[in-house]
Design brief:
Length: 91
């Protein structure tokens, strides 16, 4: 029973924090590729605020698409392949 409860708790936590993880991924990639001085925590907060200030479902999907696009890509590949997915997401 403990194992089932723990597994359920972890799965729920992953679902609830998914958007935050996507914002963190985007901000980390921006820091690695484009701006060493970016405050990744503040960047992720701006993305979360941006999601909350508009069509949340659409914006959350855009953040997820961007995070998925940049995953495991080099900085050059991100510039070449992820402009459409990541354009207009705040930093």
């Amino acid at each position: 029973m403990k194992t089932l409860t723990l597994a359920t708790f972890l799965a729920l936590g992953a679902l609830l924090s998914g958007c935050s993880n996507n914002a963190d991924s985007i901000c980390d990639k921006r820091k690695d590729c484009f701006n060493d001085d970016i405050d990744t925590g503040a960047c992720a907060e701006r993305i979360e605020d941006w999601i909350d200030d508009g069509d949340e479902d659409e914006r959350r999907d855009r953040v997820e698409d961007c995070a998925r696009c940049i995953d495991d890509r080099s900085c050059a590949q991100v510039l070449e392949s992820c402009i459409d997915e990541c354009f207009d997401i705040p930093s």
